[in-house]
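Q: Sequence in, structure out?
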Amino acid sequence: MAPHQIEPDVVVPIFSKHTQQTDLPHLTNPKVQTETNGHFDHVKPFELEDHPIDETISLRVAVIGAGLSGINAGIIIPIKVPGVDLIVFDKNADVGGTWFENVYPGVRCDIPAHVYQSTFSPNTRWTEEYAQGHEIREYWQSVARKYNLYDRFQGNTKVIGAEWNGSDAKWTLQLKDLKSNTERKEYFDVVITAIGRFNAWKLPDIPGIQDYEGHLRHASNWDKSFEPTGKNVAVIGNGASGIQVVPNIQKIVKRLDHYARSPTWLAKSFAAEGQGRNLEPNYYPKETIDSFDDPANYLKFRKELEGKFFDRFGSVFKNSEKNIAAREDFTKLMAERLQKKPEILDAILPDFSPNCRRLTPGPGYLEALTEDNVNFIRTPIARFTKTGIITADGIERNVDAIICCTGANRDMHPPFSITVPKVGTLAQAWTPDTYTYLGTATPSFPNLLFIQGPNGTGNSGTVPNQVETQVTYISQLLRKVTQQRIRTFSPSKAATDDFVAYSDAFFAKTVWTENCSSWANGGRPGGRIHGHWPGSASHVNHVRKNPRWEDWEWTYRTETGNRFAYFGNGWSAKELVDGSDRTLYLRKPEEVDLRSYHEEWW
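A: Exactly. Output:
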């Protein structure tokens, strides 16, 4: 027998991890056999697949949610992943997410609009520095139209559940058409959740709430027909929405009872980006808006503004100079705003550090608390009655309307069941704590990805930038799946455990682990942190630029499971087309940038 050959019927043994490469014969085309219970099961010999290496497979992808994350996914993924068939589902009639749903008085972005927008399709003509909700909604809908997202969008469609079918390697989505009230099933290779952090508002779990006969609403379910003028109104909660609602209705209601048990820090702005927010609109002068028509001038403006949001990371560390300075600045600011009723300061000033809970600028909020028609109530609510609210001290206050600004689910669980048979539900896997690899996926839940999932968002920076980089990371993953004909993928438990261990060690150094109740810890003071990435925005962006594919577990579509089956017949597609340019790498020397040379995937 000639060197480096083997008889056709030689059995490939099951090697231990200690087998050395020098112990193995050089195989040309063996009949692959596996051992089960001492018996060998014959498997078809490996044969070349007849296709060029760069012929990609099709991939059906469902994106659940059409807010900022879903819009970006619906635009970017089809461009970066050839062959993808993508649909964006949302329970709402149109795209926009939280900006479609929230229409309460005073709803607006609490960071400047020029950094709360796409980096690749900016609006240079925002009317206000801190845009109102309707202008933000209209902007994101215009981006969706520009990139033809509506061709891939299905609104009024609620996801009831998702179940994995291992034999077909597909997800079954149970969908409900909210217009026709009918249900149907659709099947996808990959499911991506883009449902946001606060995707399911809920009324507070307070005894007697069902007995109240007045106007009862959650701020995220605002009734546009409700007119608060001249009424006695209760507002429960002092999170972001409560802090916006209170000053915007205080001037028109007869009496405002504000129930706020949690102390909170009020800041002038998020990143010292300027004069900060005011209760009244900060309109841009026409000459400023017109100056942004010059692309170079606008780019300079935006880089200077956006860069400030990357500079605030140092304030999240315990006893850091920036955090100590923030405590001093915010205390002084809050005292100035509460001069009419200085006793409120002691009630609302936290004993935990700034940034333990999310900062809120809250213009006009503290000033509203000092007005004569406002009762600032720290006493816990005991129960609702038919006509109002009774607190733990026995005092009953009757009101015409109750507005609950009590937030949404803080455990980051999707509002529908995601099930893998013999594994369980994602909610079970995330109880008592969420469990993800890089905030993007969870072991044992194949072909399931998250945008802005638990531990998926770095502190500092901007939300749009981080969504774009995470969608780009996901696009790289899906491109690998289509190019290499991968059947299933999920992160390994070992890699996920290492990420969780790193995260816990990092968070211990930050103020997020202090004794405050926040969405970052699921409302459990001192609980594990799932609302932040363990690092800065620049840190997570760096991680996403260099994927660790070795942390993932893969199966392949080929019958033999050979990872190199996608090599095909040895040809590339361009070689099979006469006249195609096979030397795209050749350019004028002055056009060559060696940093990216030979790395462009397209």
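DSSP finds 13 helices and 22 strands in the chain.
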